[in-house]
Design the sequence.
């Protein structure tokens, strides 16, 4: 398999708090209009750009530019972002992301925030030390002696 890398520059996603709602009567969870609108806009952008489907295990790096200086939890962005990427056909399931890294990079008030997403296809065995080291070194990360990812 030829390993591919794609780079996506996407709008800042809604947090998990603004992505899901719950029907008071039935208790069922549903995606709120803001979440559906985000997903539909990303799906449209990626399909129009012809972003190919990536198969097998994947590595994902998300660089986050926040819309303002409020304190935020970068992990709250993953659900909406990963769902949008999956629904656009880039991957069949967000469980394909075997290596994940999210890094705050600053602020982008002009665009109300943004995310830059790098997705790499990994070999069939993503835990192969040489391959993992190469992928991580390629995006400015390294593995410490304990095996924990540390930022650049």
Sequence:
């Amino acid at each position: 398999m030829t390993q591919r890398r794609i780079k996506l520059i996407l709008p800042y996603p809604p947090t998990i708090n603004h992505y899901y709602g719950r029907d008071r009567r039935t208790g069922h969870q549903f995606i709120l209009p803001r979440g559906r609108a985000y997903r539909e806009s990303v799906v449209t952008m990626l399909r129009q750009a012809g972003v190919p489907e990536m198969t097998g295990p994947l590595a994902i790096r998300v660089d986050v530019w926040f819309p303002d200086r409020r304190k935020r939890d970068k992990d709250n962005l993953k659900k909406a972002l990963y769902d949008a990427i999956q629904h656009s056909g880039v991957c069949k399931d967000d469980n394909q992301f075997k290596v994940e890294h999210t890094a705050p990079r600053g602020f982008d008030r002009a665009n109300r925030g943004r995310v830059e997403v790098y997705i790499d296809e990994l070999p069939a065995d993503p835990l192969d030390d040489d391959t993992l080291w190469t992928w991580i070194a390629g995006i400015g990360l390294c593995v410490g002696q304990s095996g924990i990812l540390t930022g650049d």
Q: What stands out?
A: Residues 5-124 form a domain with the 60s Ribosomal Protein L30; Chain: A; fold (CATH 3.30.1330.70).
